[in-house]
Amino acid sequence: MKPQAAPQTPPAPPIDAAPALLQEVRRLIAARLGVGTFGLEPMLDELGQTLARLMPGPGDARLSPEEQEKARASFAGMVDTLEDVLEALHRSGRAGRVLGWGER
């Protein structure tokens, strides 16, 4: 018998896809929460700003390695917080306390 290969994880999306992924996250949250997204907008805006600082466009100033490290840590913390908030909303929705979330 041949040994089975370990399941492969899908490749990470290219870095230039990150802004599009953030837009997709915004779209999915808006589709689920509707009006409830207004409370998440500041966090999503901050995620977008940090992402823009981490991935400047042509001609924009790049962050120093130290600033990049701080921005990455900040971004990771915001994503963790967003995940916690969305999980709480999902649980509330399943309990019937938040409309438009947790139906699945």
From TrEMBL:
Descriptive protein name: Uncharacterized protein
Taxonomic path: Bacteria, Pseudomonadati, Myxococcota, Myxococcia, Myxococcales
